[in-house]
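Entry 0007
Protein: MFS transporter
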Amino acid sequence: MRHSPRLLLALAAVAVAFAAADTYVVVLALPDMMAGAGIPVDQLQRAAPIVSGFLLGYVAMLPLIGRIADLRGRVPVLVAALLVFALGSLVTALAYDMPTIVTGRFLQGVGGGGLVPATLALVADLYPAERRGVPLGLVSAVQEIGSVLGPLFGALVLAVADWRAIFLVNLVVGLVLALLVGRVASASERIETPRRRGIDWIGLLLALVTLVAGVLVFVQPSQLMRDLTYGQLFIPYTDDSRWLTPIGLVAIGAFVLLVVRCCTARRPLLDIPGWVRTVREADVLGAVLLALALAGVILAFATADPKVQVFSDQGLWYLLGAALAAVAFVLHLRRTDRPLVPTGALRRTPAWGAMLVSFFIGAALIAALIDIPLFARTTVYPGSQLMAALVLVRFLVALPVGAVLGGYLTHRLPAGVVTAVGMVLAAVGFLWMATWGLESLHSAVATLPLVIGGFGFGIALAPVNAAVLASTDDDVHGLASAFVVVSRMVGMLVGISALTTIGLRRYYAEQADVPSVRDVCDGASRCSEFSRLLKIAGIAQEQTVFTGAAVCALVAAVLALVLFRQAPTRAVSTGDLLRSAG
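Output (structure tokens):
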């Protein structure tokens, strides 16, 4: 089948988009998920693990998954990531308390995050360096479209069903995509896939018993529990644990037998020994140390309330642990024979430069994602979260359009120039937003900086990925792509905390200059004029954040121009050959 590679890439891109949508799908569903876990809505801070758990899975495991994709192949990792994503969706949909919700979200993050480096590396496998721009732009565009549709998808499902239906849809889509990717890959002559094997019926039976018994443990159907006979299956032998019931022990026992079967069968349902060998070859100890370092950074910033602090109360301890893990990781790389990051894998300037540029892009991008809706709610839509979110949609819609154009321009211009142009446009958009006042969003002109900013960010996505892929060897493309994604996510976490803190200082300074409420309101406890003055102070905060984001975007532009100069992302023209020969 001549078109199988392109169809495979299209399926992988759809999977990436769906995983990106799942990143934002909890925005509207979070209150209902809290209720499902028995958490009062007014204790929003207790729901932080639902978000941070996904981030931990998405970011901390990416380097290991990227390395496995280099060692075992893109298609097996794509299929495995989709299956893990589907499993996480099932666990989340059936969750009955906070630990199970967090576990499900963590698995979703691992699966969804693993799709990104495998897909980017697949582009590098299918296209030469000078032709990767447009495919990378299309992948980035589809991913950003998923981010736009995520909240809308969540709102649509919540309009007709409860929050669990969102993750049941994820389960079905994940399984269908895994099946399609496997079938299309087996028909392709250019993608290496494992040989077809017979079906392990015993393993399949054990998997079904594990699944059915496990679902019953999660759901605990009231009809069965009230039955005099079947109800005994749900009575715990000790404590109150659901897993220490007869049906829970059946699920555990079937799972253990399934693992044993997969480890000993000649043709197992899942080649566990093979995956274990690959994980060992990928340097599991190094991956654990790096994951701990990343987890410390994520928890320090993700669990903080940016309105009052840069780090959470335990943030310094998290960062200290991250620093120790990072030192141990570096020492480990020097001593091991098979390191997670092979010696010299990122030695070329554009390779490590892409991570640095991606960090500042993330730091600037998060300001748009968070503070544009905040500005809208502060000024013209104080009582409508939906209308405030629709203001951000104007920015997000321009992103995929810019991503496609950025991929096209990468064919024609140096990656550093394309990235710089995009980030300069983003900076222009932010500086324009920094001039907004109380009534600015009522004007149609306010759409221009939103479109310019989103367009600029989109343009910068493809050349950054093209630069890192063109500057690394084929056997580390998955790892290099993973590090670029990790850098962007870490930049977003650090950026939102730093920029919000700077903005709050401006807010407090402006608020200090506001006269007392009694002076403004002639002795009354509140009046419209005093509320207007407080809104102006809030606007000053957002203007400061937008200005700081513009600075981050300009830093990314300068770094791209300097660090991407040697990135071979374009086809060499006859004129270039003659000039180099001369």
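Curator remark: Residues 304 and 313 are 7 Å apart (CA to CA). The mean pLDDT is 83.
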